[in-house]
Specification:
- This protein is an alpha/beta fold and 243 residues long.
- It has a domain of 117 residues: Ribosomal protein L1/L10, domain II (Rossmann fold).
- Strands 1-7-6-2 form a 4-stranded antiparallel beta sheet. A 3-stranded parallel beta sheet has the order 4-3-5, with helices on one face.
- It is flat.
- It comes from Grus americana (Whooping crane).
- This is Large ribosomal subunit protein uL1m.
- Keywords: Mitochondrion, Ribonucleoprotein, Ribosomal protein, Transit peptide.
- Its main location: mitochondrion.
- Belongs to the universal ribosomal protein uL1 family.
Length: 243
């Protein structure tokens, strides 16, 4: 409410103030900003729909099979694939042309089909495989858990680095004993539970072929075998040979 103050001179102010109550209306003022917000929202939805239509229309050009010239754009053509024998021959040829050392390693990337019906993905896992042709001279250190003296003697004869029973638990927990792999016989497994969190994936298990009665076979696998791990849910990257 405005009221005239002494000392202010406004022509016709008293008349306008007296007529002000007659101008009051019960109709609420129109909110122009709400209509503007609605139109802006509709415009944004239209632009999003147009963008999605444009994205669906654009299609990638199909790749051509084989180039006819010596110089070409690689992303216009399919990546060539070779048989194993041809690929190995190419590696040997490149080694001679580049004058690289013939004892360098050959690496391989294996892409696995990990699609399942129930689960969307497979958890990463590691395993050990015994290759038909060894390409390294060094062997891994393997510890054998057993309390049977005959089994312990067999383990020593087949190249076990450490052989023992529950007395080794303390040394392993304190990092006094460190080896590449651990194998065990089933009879001692209930006593090795304190090592489960310490060894984790190296903990003896039948799934990794590190738990069983055939000690020579387990020692050969983990002393001479190649350990690999699945990365990025479906890829194995490892070395398999020398050139």
């Amino acid at each position: 409410v405005l009221a005239p103050r002494r000392g202010w001179v406004f022509l016709g102010l008293d008349q306008r103030l007296s007529a002000a109550p007659a101008l009051v209306s019960a109709v609420p003022p129109a909110r122009s900003y709400a209509a503007a917000a609605k139109t802006a929202k509709k415009d944004s939805q239209k632009t999003k729909q147009e963008e999605t239509k444009k994205k669906q229309v654009t299609r990638r050009r199909p790749l051509m099979s084989k180039p006819v010239d010596d110089v070409y754009l690689t992303w216009y053509y399919e990546r060539p694939s070779y048989d194993v024998e041809e690929a190995v021959g190419m590696l040997k040829k490149f080694q001679e042309l580049d004058f690289t050392h013939p004892q360098q390693y050959v690496y391989i990337n294996v892409f696995l089909d990990m699609a399942l019906q129930k689960k969307k993905k497979v958890d990463p896992f590691a395993s050990t495989v015994l290759l038909p042709y060894r390409f390294t001279d060094e062997t891994n250190k393997v510890l054998v858990f057993t309390e049977n003296e005959q089994e312990a003697e067999i383990a020593r004869e087949n190249g076990a680095a450490v052989v023992g029973g529950v007395e080794l638990i303390k040394w392993i927990l304190e990092d006094e004993i460190q080896v590449d792999s651990y194998v065990a016989v089933p009879a001692i497994m209930p006593k090795l539970i304190p090592l489960r969190n310490k060894l984790r994936r190296k903990y003896p298990s039948t799934k990794r072929n590190s738990l069983g009665h055939d000690i020579p076979k387990m020692l050969q696998l983990f002393r001479e075998g190649l350990e690999y791990m699945v990365q990025d849910e479906c890829v194995i990257k490892t070395r398999i040979a020398r050139v």
